[in-house]
Write a structure and sequence with these properties.
Blueprint: H1 2-24, H2 29-54, H3 59-77, H4 80-95, H5 97-113, H6 120-135, H7 137-142, H8 171-189, H9 195-206, H10 209-216, H11 221-240, H12 244-256, H13 262-292, H14 301-307, H15 310-319, H16 336-352, H17 358-366, H18 370-386, H19 408-425, H20 428-447, H21 459-464, H22 469-472, H23 480-500
């Protein structure tokens, strides 16, 4: 418990100091909050990875203590921002009183929950990190009996919890990433709507069941999603007002997307192409040459190399059988376009299969099983034509029973139509982002073979594209009353998910 309290205090103080710095730089409240959390994650990850490479992990304690003290001093120096922040929250809460108060109570419950439940899968990952910590980078790479190392950009953030041996409280980092996702969604939605609609969009995204579960159970997947949204926000800010700070944060964020989760490995190149197209189409290469000519731009070179994990991949390539420790445990689609089409349908059906408690409810009240209906549809229309192309095993939705898996009605009924609408009617920037997300969906269907649990890689897709809902809502029909109804529906879904999560 003490380790969890100390880590929480460290992240809070450093994030608050970073928040004040971004506010002074002219960022909005939501942009500053999102930026602050992810930049603190990047700073801590950079420090710990460098110490891991040089073989002196204890040095990171002194460096982190220095930044913690500096953060406390900065907060004290700019304490006048505290009253302004409280005033903004009070005004925002008064205009969205019911939803705002409900979310505060849910966040408090989630914060308490993070101290009491640690999944076995996360403890296994933590034990791997413990091996890295004890043996050191050069010893692990040169020893032939050790397998290839996997990227540690996000997992190394949980290093302090190795000292407790239990992992209790590690979920606080995931809860911080969850809050960053909410702030990023709101900041991006504000580009296409007024504050009430943007807040409604953020509530809907934060109520996605799988995201809620990821927020209270320790793991790295939700951090990858938060970093992806951070990059999209950085793209928008950079193209709106070209400047060195946002451009460097974008570069570092693109490299920081790489983690042991295959979703980040696929989405990072897509984000790179997206940023290249948007930035150079809007301002041309001359403007970016002028900005990058600044001497401070070279400060990002070493962190970018560390976050790119090139040092790790190259070491694996020269000393191990595989350049990455990821791929041996992943099954690939060997059936080409036919397998991709079959996988596309499978993932759509899984996204339509909502949160687990809804199916027993439908069976008891309406005597209708969603699982059986979707399975019958698949067997009749898809299996008869495509068979088991692109799948590791027979597609059967019954594996999802009892699993808090789905992206809920928000993913199927709002995110998917919103992306299609954005590609058809959206402005060029939003259209490019929508195409990037659809490309990600296609690449996952084409590259990965379907297996139970593979749809977890679509968390980036459904959560990251959630801000497009704000453009999808018709402003002339989405009245104040309708906004409140939708907000309450999102809050109820969030509450149900928390009640049914162990």
């Amino acid at each position: 418990m003490l380790i969890a309290a100390l880590v929480s205090a460290q992240v809070f103080c450093m994030s608050t100091a970073a928040f004040f710095l971004f506010r002074m730089n002219g960022n909005t409240f939501a942009e500053s909050a999102s930026y602050a959390i992810i930049t603190v994650f990047m700073l801590l990850s950079f420090i710990r990875q460098v110490c891991f490479i040089i073989g002196s992990p204890l040095i990171s304690i002194g460096i982190e203590a220095f930044f913690l003290i500096a953060s406390i001093l900065l907060i004290y120096r700019h304490r006048s921002y505290i009253s302004g922040t409280i005033s903004i929250l009070r005004n925002f809460g008064s205009s969205n009183f019911i939803s705002f108060i409900f979310l505060i109570f849910c966040f408090l419950y989630m914060a308490i929950h993070t101290f009491f439940h640690v999944p076995k899968e996360f403890l296994d990952e933590l034990s791997t990190l413990s091996l890295y910590e004890k043996s050191g980078f050069f010893q692990l790479v040169s020893a032939p009996e050790f397998p290839a190392l996997f990227p540690v950009n996000h997992l190394i953030l949980f290093k302090p919890f190795l000292w407790s041996g239990t992992g209790f409280g590690a979920g606080m980092l995931c809860l911080s990433a969850y809050l960053s996702i909410g702030f990023s969604t709101y900041a991006l939605a504000r580009r296409y709507s007024w504050p009430p609609t943007a807040f409604t969009t953020a509530v809907l995204v934060m109520s996605i069941p799988r995201l809620v579960v990821q927020a209270i159970h320790p793991g790295t997947q939700i951090i990858a999603v938060a970093v992806a949204l951070f990059c999209i926000l950085a793209i928008y800010r950079t193209v709106e007002l070209p400047n060195l700070t946002d451009l460097l944060l974008l570069v570092l964020g693109l490299c920081f997307c790489i983690s042991q989760n295959i979703s980040g490995m696929i989405f990072a190149p897509i984000l790179f192409i997206l940023s290249w197209v948007i930035l150079f189409r809007r301002h041309g290469i001359i403007e970016w040459k002028r900005i990058l000519a600044n001497a401070y731009a070279f400060l990002a070179v070493v962190p970018a190399l560390i976050f790119s994990q090139s040092w790790l991949f190259m070491s694996n390539y020269y000393y191990k059988d595989s350049w990455s420790g990821l791929f041996p445990s992943i099954s690939f689609n060997h059936d080409g376009i036919q397998g991709a089409l079959a996988n596309f349908i499978r993932y759509i059906l899984e996204s339509f299969h909502f949160t687990a408690p809804l199916d027993p409810f439908f069976v008891r009240v309406f005597d209708w099983s969603m699982t059986q209906s979707l399975q019958s549809f698949y067997d009749f229309f898809v299996r008869s034509c495509l068979g088991e192309s692109g799948a590791v095993q027979v597609f059967d939705l019954t594996w999802m029973q009892g699993e808090m898996f789905s992206f809920g009605p928000v993913g199927f009924f709002l995110v998917l139509p919103a992306l299609c609408y954005a590609m058809l009617k959206g402005p060029r920037r939003l259209k490019a982002v929508a195409i990037a997300f659809v490309s990600y969906f296609y690449l996952v269907s084409l590259i990965l073979a379907w297996a139970p649990g593979t749809s977890a890689v679509f968390e980036i897709f459904y959560v990251g594209a959630g801000f497009s809902i704000a453009f999808f809502f018709p402003p002339w029909r989405f009245t104040k009353r309708n906004k409140r109804i939708v907000q309450i529906a999102g809050c109820v879904l969030l509450f149900i998910t928390l009640l049914t999560t162990p």
